[in-house]
Design goal:
This protein is α/β, with parallel strands linked by helices. Helix 1 packs parallel to helix 2. The two termini are 24 Å apart.
Length: 103
């Protein structure tokens, strides 16, 4: 059973399994700061190995920065199901190599 860690406006952070933290909703300038705090808290509560972005419906540069900050702090965390738009933004922003371990 999924446990909700924290909702934040139009974004939610949940722990679906002990090793996965999922982000869903909009990961944008309006929600990224709170989402970052929520993901940090979830990482502190669980031994997560995967950040699942499959539920992210919309992301902007602040959302991408949020993901990059999480990866900088938790380098062993793998990113799964990154939305195509976020991956394209990473490519044009020339930060895609920083996401090398993402699936």
């Amino acid at each position: 059973m999924a446990s909700k860690v924290a909702p934040s406006a139009n974004v939610a952070v949940t722990r679906d399994t002990p090793d996965t933290i999922s982000v869903s909703g909009e990961l944008t300038f309006a929600t990224a700061q709170k989402a970052l705090a929520d993901v940090r808290a979830a990482i502190g509560q669980a031994n997560a190995t995967t950040l699942d972005l499959g539920g992210v419906s919309r992301a902007d540069s602040a959302g991408l920065a949020c993901v990059l900050a999480i990866l900088a702090e938790t380098p062993d965390l793998a990113v799964a199901r990154m939305p195509d738009g976020m991956r394209a933004l990473a490519r044009v922003s020339d930060v895609e190599p920083m996401l090398a371990g993402s699936r």
